[in-house]
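seq:
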Amino acid sequence: MTVPAPAVPAPGATGPGPTGVLFSVEHVTLRFGGVVSLSDVSLVLHRGEILSVIGPNGAGKTSLFNCLTGVYTPQEGSIIFTPKYGRPLSVIGRKPFRVNRAGVARTFQTSRMFNALTTFENVKIGAESKQHTGPVGAMLRLRRTRREEHESDLKTLELLRFVGLTRRANELSSSLPYGERRRLEIARALGTGPEVLLLDEPAAGTNPAEKIELAELIRKVNTELGVTVLLIEHDMKLVMSVAQRIVVLNFGQVIAEGSPAEIQRDPVVINAYLGSAETDDPVDDGGAGNGPVGNGPVVGTSSDAGGDGL
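struct:
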């Protein structure tokens, strides 16, 4: 049995409507008291693409993710999610679990596994999130309950195979190396059957070899499962290798948008975030997850361990 893939076209194809827009964010402003985390942010996420959001620590990247998933409610603007099947819906004011059921899944900056459960059990939680069995059916072990249980087991095993963790199925998630925990989080998110996967700094804390494996996995999620990907990441080598389009945030505002090549050459982005080879010292790509972009700009910040500071 294979993992049921969301019914989305291949990257570059369009979905329902003339533009194939999956997420439409228009003029979103998010305030915490006197602190403005997002200021008049507008962007679109097209069905089937890999879009990366980059920017310095505190730029508002995770705040944007929290708005897209219903965790935060912005004071101004609109966020519309258009599923493959069904009418467009407003995310603002909708509870996170309902946003997830609509087809939006995410991972977090820091690992959020159920440490007392096995790798298999962690993924199965995601696979069971859309089952229809209620308490009575679970107690009586009705036919539908048994069928859904069997299907979730098969789906979990297939997802573990997809992310390369089959041999770890019966191990406690807390015992996994950090890079494998990151892949486990992706598998659990995919278990919910999303149309779009939001990845919040998936490479944070991983070594160079794990980053290469992660980049390949992100591409597989997009091309083989047909899942649209929205990526927050500080590691520019990873971003430039997987992203088809990039949006740059700085102080809660969008300062640039374009292809990876266009972003690398944008003087506003270089001054605000990437840095200049003439003015900045090279940053080693080893432990911080940062590195040179091409032969010039370098990233001068590490991962947002505190969640954009907000």
